[in-house]
Amino acid sequence: MKKQFFLILTVVLGTILQAQAQNDGITRFFKQYEDDERFTMVYVSPKMFQMVAKIETDDEDWNNIREVVKDLGGLRVLTADSIGDGVAMYKSALSRVPQNEYSELLTVRDGKENVRFWIKDSGNIIEELLLLVGSEDEFTMLSFTGKIDLDKISQLSKSLDIDGAEHLGKIKGSKNKDKDKNKGEDKEEDKN
Amino acid sequence: MKTFLSIICFLFFAHTLSAQDGWLYWKYKDYDGMAFTVPRWVVDAGSWFLDEKAERKLLRRVDKVRFMVFENDMNPVSDRDMKKFTRKAHRRELEDLVVVRDGKTQVRVMGKEKRGILRKVVVLVHSPEDFVFVSVKGRLRLNDINHIIEKYDKEDKGKKDKPMVPPVVKIPVSRV
Q: In the sheet where B131-141 sits, what is the strand order?
C-alpha cells in the first residue's frame, strides 16, 4: 500500500514539476536578461490592463483598445536594437520555447530578420502569444498572456509604442492570407 | 488594564505599519535635492484656483502628495533600498502597474486600486544619476482621471490641426 502511495505521489509530483519547468523556460529567459543593460525591458501588469478596461468613455479609438485589453493578462517585452549577437540570442530563445506546449503560428524571414509567433492554447482559447524577432543587431521577445483574440491583438501594433510591437500587425495579414487561400480553394472546389 | 495596554500596543504597531510606506521619503528627504509633502488642506486650497470643474473635482479627491527629486549625479538612494522599497510596497498591496527599464534607468509605476478607485499611486524613476519619487494618496476615480486626459488630448489635437498661418492673413505684396 505504502509503495503504491509513493509511486502515485512521485508520478504526480513529476508531472507538476515537468509542467513548471516548461513554463519556466521562457520566464527564466526574461528573468535572465531583465537586468541586462543591453536590453530594454517593459512589463505591463494584469492589474494595469484591468484598470484600463474599467475606464468608460465615448472615444471610439479608446473603446476599441478597451475591447482588446479587457481580457489581457499581462505583457512582457525584452528588446535590444543595437545588440551585436541578435541571431545568437534568437537561437538561444528559440531553444527555450517548449515545442510541445506552444504551437507555431507564423514564421517570417525577411533578409536577415527572423520573426516567429507561437501560441499556447487550451481548447479554443489562446492563453499566450509569444513573439520572437532576431536579426544581426536586433532582438525582441514579446509575450502577451490572458484570453487573446488574434484579430484584436493585431490592432495593438499601432497603439503600442514599443520596439517589436509593429510585428503584431503581421498576424492579421497572415490570417487574411489564410482566409483568402481557403476562399480560393473553396471556389475551385465549387467549380469542380 | 492588560486589555487596555494590548489595545494601545496594537494601535501603536498598526500606526507604525501604515507609516512603513513612507520610510524611503523620511530616510532621504534631508539629502541635497528637493523633497516636500503637500497635505490635504493645501491641495484643497489649490483646487480653488482651477477653472475646470473636472480638475477641481479630481484634486479634491487627493489626500496627500509626496515628492522627492535628486538630480545631477546627486542620487543618494541605493539599489538595495530600492529593492527593499519595492518588496515592502508589494507586501502593502501596492501592485506594479508598469515597469520599464532602459539602460540604467528604471521607471516603475505602482498603484493600489479597489473597485475603480485608486487609493495610491507611486511613481519611481531611478538611475545612477537621478531619482524621482512621487506618491499620491487619495480616492481617485479612474473615469475622472480619464476625463482630464481626454480633455488635454483634445486640446493638443486642436492645436495640431490649427494652421501655423491663419488663412485670413494676406501677405502684403508691393508692386514696383
A: A103-110, A113-122, A125-134, A139-148, A72-80, A40-44, B95-102, B105-114, B117-126, B131-141, B62-70, B34-38
B118/B124 Cα distance (integer angstroms): 17
| Contact call for B146 and A55, based on CB within 8 A | yes
The ranges assigned to domains in chain A are: 39-191
Looking at residue A123, its pLDDT comes to 74
Tell me what the mean pLDDT of segment B68-84 comes to. 89
| pLDDT over threshold 90, residue B114 | no
The verdict on A16 touching B (C-beta cutoff 8 Å) is no
Instruction: Answer whether B85's CB lies under 8 Å from B66's CB.
Output: no
Rounded mean pLDDT, B43-62: 84
Nearest to A141 by CA among A87, A187, A76: A76
Tell me the three cell numbers of residue A135.
Answer: 536579426
H/E element holding A133?
Answer: strand A125-134
Does the model's ipTM exceed the 0.85 cut?
Answer: no
CA-to-CA dists, residue A123 to A127, A146, B20, B151, angstroms:
10, 14, 46, 43
| N-term to C-term CA, chain B | 105
Q: A45 — contact with chain B (CB < 8 Å)?
A: yes
pLDDT bin (cut points 50, 70, 90) of residue B132 is: very high
Euclidean distance between CA atoms A48 and A27, whole angstroms: 20
CA distance to partner chain A, nearest, from residue B111 (Å)? 9
Contact A142, A165 (CB under 8 A): yes
B 97-116: CB under 8 A from A: 97-104, 111, 113, 116
pTM: 0.72
